[in-house]
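Lab notebook: predicted structure, single chain.

Context: the supervisor wants predicted structures on file for every construct in the current expression panel, including those that have not yet been purified. This is the next one on the list. No modifications to the sequence; it matches the entry in the shared construct table.
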Amino acid sequence: MSSVAADGSKGVVSKDVVSNDAVLFDELSAGADFKLGLMTLNVPAAMNAVDLDMVNLIDDGIRRWNEDPQIAAIIMRGAGDKAFCAGGDIRKLYTSMTCDDERQRLQYADDFFRGEYAKNYRLHQITKPLIAWGHGFVMGGGLGLFIAANHRVGSECLKLAWPEVRIGLYPDVAASYYLSRLPYPAGHWMGLTGSHMNTTDCKQLGLIQYALEHNRWQDFIQRMQQAHWCTNKAVNHQQVRQLLTELDSASAGQMPASDMQAVAAELDEIFASDDIADICARLKQHKSRNKWLKQGQQNFKKACPATVHLIMEQIRRGATMSLKEVVSWELILAYQAVRHPDFSEGVRAMVVDKDYKPKWQHKSVAAVPDSWLKQLMTSPWPADQHPYHEL
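Prediction complete. Output recorded below exactly as produced.
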């Protein structure tokens, strides 16, 4: 069945891969014997936020491509100029959390998180080149999707963030794994402030491997189609690395200056101790002239107090956990988060009513009792009945 991909390249849509308007699956010719799988998140009006149907389509489509010997490499991108993916569709999650029908309440939310986390874990297991093109906002659940790729590209407009601290959730979709492995204090700063990280900082931190101008997309696709693919996956990975490295070099000098380097000394001062009380005090009291740092401080001052505790625990635990252990543990946190009031209140204030004045359950980080945190981290399932027991 012939089609034309969203980039204008001619390709073939597989009969086995089901597209809908929200997620497009195109197969582009790549020589006589191979094809490239191009997946496009196609909800630009919502900055390509994903819902449960999209999660299931992504999971099924990329799995099939990974098993198809004709597909040499898989590419993920977002439609439009604003975002790869700004996260999950939290309006639908809010509706699920506040549903009047007790039989329906939380069903969608539970299904969404269970499906999303499992999908992202399986994406980490993809053995073929999996390339994510990060342009514009890459946040929350979108970052979880993006970071699962084994080849990650950031454009000059990249804004990468885990912003959940402001909506009473927690940095999720394996954030515990990645934040805990960043050089101190980058993981703490990202988690506690939800700051947007630009391309240069993301590359220095290893969150992306390549920095390319967005206008090189067509060149990238054409060269991918012209590459000499084979059945050896290691050789194909090397081809992708070589191509992206060449394009990265051609884009040198076009990327923004580092935000973190400009305030490195100030961050060292703020995070001189990893004690939560000391960090909170310094984040609130520190005086800076740097606009980016000041924005992060303002984000922290509006943060959910319980989420602040969870982030500290995520970074502490995540450092010694495997990826599967992290995903399993975060599903427990998600199960509890939708049953505790801070998350729904944060979404109400920041997204639904937009009064930007969430009424958190606790007035300060110091006021959060250990019993509350224990509830948020208590599994509702015996170990052998966890939904991911056999993931």
